[in-house]
Each structure stands twice: as C-alpha cells, then as structure tokens.
C-alpha cells in the first residue's frame, strides 16, 4: 500500500524541512543544543560534587546571583523563584543551613522576617568548582570582536523571546527588535549584559 503524503515521517525531527538554503540555520541550532547539553552536564557534575539535589543547587545559585546587586532574599522570595511551597522551602533551608551553605539573619526592617545569605564556605566551594570553567568561557567571549558580541547577544535574546512566546503570538519569521550591547534583553527584565566594558580581541 502506498503511504499517503500526510502519513510520511518528516526527515528532520527537531526542525521542519526547509530548502537547502536554510541548512546553516539548522546547524546553528544544533550547535546551540550541543552547548545546552554541555551546560546541563556541567550543572549535574556540580550537583554531584557539592552533594546537593537540584532544588538546593538552584536556591544557592539564586542567592549568589542576587549578592552583587545587594538585593535581599527572604524565604518567601526564594519560594517564588523556585516555584515551590512554603513547606518545601522550609525543608530546603533547613538542609542548606545544616550543611553550612546558608545562614539566616533577622530582617532589620522587620524582626518577624528573615533574610538569607550564602556562607563564605559555600562561596569557596562554588568558586573552586567553577572558576576555571568560567575563565575559559570568558576567554571565548572576550576573543570576539564587539560586532560579533552584539550579534551573539542579539541572537540569544531573539531566541529566548521565541522560546518564551506562546506559539500563537507571532507568525513564523517574525522577529522581536534587536537589543544593543549592554542593555536588557526582551522578556528578561533585570538581566544585563556585562561584557561591554571588556577589551575585545580580533
């Protein structure tokens, strides 16, 4: 029996078949998937080395990322960031305090509330595990010219917007506006690029 056109399995699983001219775009997305796989594997190694579950490690990352801006994180803020209940947050905090990764202090503006802080020992542990990898990643980014950096930033911002948007929002081929180097990306308010001050190499 001859298969109907509608029954045929597409030759490309992840992306719709396109004309040959679109193949380089697929190669870009495949390279992005390779990076995503490498990043996920790195995070799993970090979780194992620090003997933490995924939620505890995510909590630690949120708290560390908030420190440079001086933003105070309370238990309710962490629960919202992680998308977990108050009861689950209480258990998570008990684990992190017990392991020496976290300390709690009374909120000076509200003595009924608490603020969360990563301990120096936890900072040292994370730095020991990640510092060499971060230096290698930074070296790759610094080796780009400014034009290349802007191209990469705009591509990733556009891709983030495409992933976040409901499928009915925009027709295929519709792109959100590009974002200049050093400004906030669409849909990621509060996240700023910090590479604009670095020297670029050719």
UniProtKB/TrEMBL annotation:
Xref: Gene3D superfamilies: Winged helix-like DNA-binding domain superfamily/Winged helix DNA-binding domain
Membrane-crossing segments per the record: none
SMART domains: HTH_MARR
Signal peptide: none
One Pfam entry name: MarR_2
Name of this chain's protein: MarR family transcriptional regulator
InterPro entries recorded: HTH_MarR-typ (IPR000835), MarR/SlyA-like (IPR039422), WH-like_DNA-bd_sf (IPR036388), WH_DNA-bd_sf (IPR036390)
Residue ranges annotated for the HTH marR-type domain, each copy included: 21-161
Ranges annotated as biased composition (Basic and acidic residues): 191-202
Region ranges (Disordered): 170-202
Organism lineage: Bacteria, Bacillati, Actinomycetota, Actinomycetes, Micrococcales
SUPFAM superfamilies for the chain: Winged helix' DNA-binding domain (SSF46785)
């Amino acid at each position: 029996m001859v298969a109907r056109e509608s029954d045929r399995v597409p030759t490309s699983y992840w992306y719709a078949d396109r004309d040959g001219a679109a193949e380089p775009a697929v190669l870009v997305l495949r390279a992005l998937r390779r990076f995503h796989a490498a990043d996920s594997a790195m995070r799993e190694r970090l979780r194992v080395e620090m003997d933490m579950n995924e939620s505890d490690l995510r909590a630690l990352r949120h708290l560390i990322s908030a420190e440079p801006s001086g933003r105070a994180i309370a238990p309710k803020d962490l629960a919202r960031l992680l998308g977990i209940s108050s009861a689950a947050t209480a258990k998570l905090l008990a684990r992190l305090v017990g392991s020496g990764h976290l300390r709690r202090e009374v909120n000076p503006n509200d003595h009924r509330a608490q603020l969360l802080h990563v301990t120096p020992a936890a900072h040292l542990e994370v730095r020991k595990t990640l510092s060499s990898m971060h230096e290698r990643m930074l070296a790759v980014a610094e080796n780009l010219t400014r034009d290349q950096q802007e191209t990469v930033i705009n591509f990733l911002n556009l891709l983030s917007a495409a992933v976040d948007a409901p499928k009915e929002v925009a027709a295929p081929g519709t792109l959100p506006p590009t974002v200049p180097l050093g400004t906030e990306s669409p849909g990621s308010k509060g996240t700023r690029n910090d590479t604009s001050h670095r020297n670029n190499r050719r």
